[in-house]
């Protein structure tokens, strides 16, 4: 499947400082799992619909959930946004953020704006 997303070696090197330390047995391949998490989120897929090349869907979900709860992804975004001065610009793609489809209708029903 040629349309899969894979983090590059350079991207992984930039993200590495934000990874939590592994305790006990080593984690499965970080590049594979993080690339899968990004692919699932970018394409608005269910975890179980992730391509098999990224590994088990349960592994993707568990890593996403555990690292989200620990704030790992938030620290990654903050760290990348405040990187060293030699980087001229840092762009974070927010096109995949979505508002719930009922958010506007709920506001209107409660007598908010537009009502």
From TrEMBL:
Domain annotation Insertion element IS402-like: ranges: 7-77
Superkingdom as given in the UniProt entry: Bacteria
Protein name per its UniProtKB record: Transposase
A Pfam family matched in the record: DUF4096
């Amino acid at each position: 499947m040629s349309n899969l997303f894979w983090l590059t070696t350079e991207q992984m090197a930039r993200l590495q400082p934000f990874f939590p330390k592994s305790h006990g047995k080593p984690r499965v391949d970080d590049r594979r799992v993080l690339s899968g998490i990004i692919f699932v989120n970018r394409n608005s897929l269910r975890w179980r619909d992730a391509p098999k090349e990224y590994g088990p869907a349960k592994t993707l979900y568990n890593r996403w959930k555990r690292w989200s709860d620990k704030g790992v992804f938030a620290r990654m975004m903050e760290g990348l946004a405040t990187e060293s001065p030699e980087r001229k610009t840092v762009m974070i793609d927010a096109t995949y953020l979505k508002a719930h489809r009922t958010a506007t209708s709920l506001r209107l029903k409660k007598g908010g704006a537009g009502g």
